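My current task is to audit a protein record that another person submitted. Alongside the sequence sits a line of tokens, each denoting a local backbone shape. Where you disagree with what is written, explain briefly why. This is what I was given:
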Amino acid sequence: MVGYFDRFLRRHLNALRLARWGLPPALRDGPVVVYCNHPAWWDAAVIILLAGRLYPARASHAPFDARMLERYGVFRRMGAFAVDLDTPRGAAQFLAASRTILARPDSLMWITAQGRFADVRVRPLALRAGVARLPEIAPDALFVPLALEYAFWEERGAEAFAAFGAPIRGRDLLALPRPERLARLEADLTAILDRLGADVIAREPGRFQGLVTGAKGVGGVYDGWLRLGAALRGRRFTPGHRAAAGADATSDEPAP
């Protein structure tokens, strides 16, 4: 399925980029919880790619809205487990499943901690309380914030962006009362989101490391026409908007 979503992303997005200052941390033995914001439908696909590309030796799991898991049952095969997000029973489901998963030293749990779709600019993030309960059942776990964002730059496909923050031990979080624990987790993630957002606004690809790169250009007949024109002029055809504009100020770009 990692291969499937790799091809899916290449077909529909321009790239998945990692901030150079927010590369994934090296993980030692022991369970890990990666908690992130939840800006878009694409989050599940991006998380699957991050898990498969960055931590292939880890057994990844993720809570999933029970109603949505009925619709997208394939995610069960990739470690998703059902949680009813709107009832006390769902909270008990989440903690029970998490206790079993995080008891294994090779486990890696990915949590969209807002529990709902929320714009990347919304503040406060309003993380759900469940993520702050996990240190109580897994004090040896490592907690890692992950910021996700999407934007359109210069190609027809959108860019997906990700940045990891500094990890913190469950035991260190456990020393804080629950409200302060949740506030600490939220503050760490907010700081990563704000820094990532500044890089996205800057539109400088050099600030990022490409993890997956999709097909550039418009495609179809239009790109075929440009390719033929470049060949007739003895030039190399570059489908990307930035590359085409930089190589020739007029030749392969449509008039405004």
In short: The longest helix spans residues 178-202.
